[in-house]
């Protein structure tokens, strides 16, 4: 009995791992691109603000943990709803699922459409697309690129395992590009409003502001305005001037940071670019 139970547990863990691991690996890889795109909005790269490989590893790992904490309850709710529906239909739901799994073309078609839909985030990142066009893209890519290969893979156990890996990887890539889209939009929002959203905070974006002073006489620079400290690297501070909508660099040896404030509160309707608008002819 214990051997059967152990085998059942191991089999369950293996099935979960065959789905979760490809998603996590693909999502981790795409998040690296997302961090670069987020800082590119300010005209810098992660290395210029002191975000090296070790820092990126920590940020992306913490992001994956937060996503896991959100995904597990949602998955649990879905499982409970499916179980409840199966009970209410007296097992009809389970029988329907078994029949679908026994028909390779149906399973291949569902997997193909899902993989086609994962491209939504990629296309959405590079342009505005309506729902109808995205449905056409998902169906077209699924039928042309994935349907027949997935059907052929269903013939053998190794092929079915390969299908899970491909679908899991594509799911991670799709989720990753949705996160990239959210990071880019959040960075643009910081440029406009001077405030970072929860998603940017989750990936470790530094929403820290300070008054910049001269190291020689400790007098405020830039008219004493608050500047966002994006980071520091190679003896240089990287600053964002919310009033002029500019990214600046100053040597650390000639710069003092005064009145440092993290995630400051803004009054209602606050926007950046006040001085930039005044200087516009």
UniProtKB/TrEMBL annotation:
Organism, scientific name: Nonomuraea mangrovi
Superkingdom of origin organism: Bacteria
Transmembrane segments: 12-35, 64-84, 105-126, 132-153, 165-184
Name this polypeptide is given: MFS transporter
Keyword Transmembrane helix listed: yes
Record's keyword terms, sorted: Membrane, Transmembrane, Transmembrane helix
